[in-house]
Amino acid sequence: MSPCQDPIVNYRILKHHPYPIDFSTKKDQQEPHVSRKVLNSEGGLMLPTELWAEIFLYCLPGCPPKDGPIPWYNRDRDVNSLTAPLLLCQICRGWREVAVSLPQLWQRLTVYVANGNACPAPDLAERWLFRSGSLPLDLSLHQQNESSLNAAAAGTILSLFINHTMRWMNIDLQLAGPRLAAYPEAGKLVAPVLQQFRLRTSYRVYEKDERYIFGVFQDVPRLINLQVSRVPELDLLGNSTVEVPWHQLDALSLEYVPSIGTSLHILSKCESVRECTLKVDTLFGPLLDEPLVHPYLHSLSINISNAHFTGFFSRITLPALKNLSIHVRGPLEHYSWPQSCFEEFLRRSSCKLTRLKLRDSGMRADQFISTVQQPYLQALQEFVVDDRRDWTWDPFVTDAGLYLMNCSLCMNASAAFAVLDEYSTESESDGGTTNPLADQACFLPNLEGLIVRGNCLKTADGTIADMVESRFYFREHGVAQLRRVELDLPSSHLADLQRLKAMQAEGLTVELDFI
Predict the structure, then answer these.
(1) Mean pLDDT, rounded, of the chain
(2) What is each CA distance from 185 to 85, 126, 216, 462, in whole angstroms?
(3) Could you give the maximum distance between any two Cα atoms of the chain, in Å?
(4) Residue of higher predicted confidence among 126 and 412
(5) How far apart are CA 356 and CA 365, in angstroms?
(6) Cα(311)–Cα(461) distance, integer angstroms
(7) Dist. CA 216–CA 236, nearest whole Å
(8) At what angle do helices 463-472 and 494-505 cross, to 10 degrees?
């Protein structure tokens, strides 16, 4: 074995090695029959190149979360000399040869532009893409703001990316008016292997250079995931100058849709879409001739004004829906939660939701109780209530609502209904009463996660802990164990705090803020 160039390393090897090592033998005196597959370029023991290549792939850092915070002040977090693949090129000549010759190490590149500089620099980014060979690319570009220096730097990187559109596979662009140095011919903007395309802009309308990128949509036969701030020149009927392949999309996210009619027209074109996120503006446009029935959509997240809530949900039926998130907005003087429309949508769709998120709903306490009792919500595994918009709204998550989710109290259905002062419902058959708890120990029996944020919680100290304990320790009749609780807890609830912390020590995930 040959000595390392560092004498300290040699000393440590001699000190801890189980048998003596002779560093006096020179390389040219070593036995000639030892193959290069066994010895590296420095003469040390080495695995076959194929195994090193496989090991190096596991050294790559994980993908950063798409919606996580952008590290503007730590821009070299993903690409630096202390992380793979650049780190692998600095260990020894043999490792460098393997790393540089392995295109899979260079398939993913994230570039941040801030303070007029790109990280990594354009020269390194160009060399990076060259080393990726002909493999499909996973590229991200994040521009901090619209300053002229940032626009120029982002334009340089974007031009470099555009030169490789034939290999685009997953693209994530967050732009603020980049300035391209040159415009390639439109015919060259083809992306035959593009699967995911994400483009967000800080402008209300796209700049010229941002609109130019949409030229790739003339040939995207594999595109299944589209997430954009807006589609250029989108009219009220869902038509655009961009040839969006709506019919082949599996996931769609639009941060601007002009009207509820436009959103319904787009959904009617997305025949196969399963996940959809929409932010609908308040314009009035033509609606579909017939209510829309979409048989495949299983996840819908919609940001909609209170005035247009009924117009949308009364014209759509989603039988496969599992995940529903509703963010309501509008002037406070006209604010009210359309409970009857919401319940009619659930009844008409006959869907079994497993996750429901209501944000800024402005519910009343009786409407929250009715929601907990809703038959089509009894399969919920996660229930999120997030009302932070205005502290003057009356709290609606009260003792009565939590009693319905308490296994111990709801074991006696009559007692539970006495709490609500809603005893009986006429039975269609024999004139008796129907008990919605006949086959379950409490309402929402499959609930595993409960999140209540904002100023919507008003209960006696201990009521929350009673409910959580009944579902964490003493659940009955197949009720799922509550595993996660996130609350904005009143600071006066010391009993709730102590008991929740005790359950946290036994495995319950608890996240608390105080109001």
Answers:
(1) 82
(2) 33, 20, 11, 68
(3) 103
(4) 126
(5) 17
(6) 40
(7) 23
(8) 20
